[in-house]
Specification:
115 residues, mainly alpha, 5 helices
Length: 115
């Protein structure tokens, strides 16, 4: 018997262009988690989040806040207790990592400039 999550991953490219996650692994995991609820709705929140950061240059913390607010628009129990906490934590942790990485790069540039 085929696992429903595995079937979802196999059908993913033909069913919906999935834009959540930062790579193939996180994309597949987020798709599998989101499969029981509104895939197009969640995907829209992910697309809006990426657009805010990449095209409109909104600060990551603000884009993350709006992303979590977008996920709050859904009333299902699964969305409130599973999807929103996991997805919001994921984007917030990535933002913290990204900010720390940028800080390290800035410090290295300053040190190189001094030398």
């Amino acid at each position: 018997m085929i696992n429903v999550g595995l079937l979802a991953l196999i059908l993913c490219p033909t069913v919906i262009a999935w834009n959540c996650g930062i790579g193939p692994l996180s994309g597949a995991l987020s798709y599998t988690l989101a499969f029981p609820v509104d895939l197009p709705g969640i995907n829209r929140c992910c697309v809006e989040h990426d657009t805010l950061i990449d095209a409109l240059h909104v600060a990551r913390h603000e884009a993350d806040r709006l992303f979590c607010q977008c996920l709050s628009n859904y009333d299902s129990w699964y969305m409130r207790t599973i999807i929103k906490p996991i997805f919001c934590t994921a984007v917030e942790l990535y933002t913290e990592w990204f900010s720390a990485q940028k800080s390290r790069e800035n410090i290295l540039q300053i040190v190189e400039h001094i030398n």
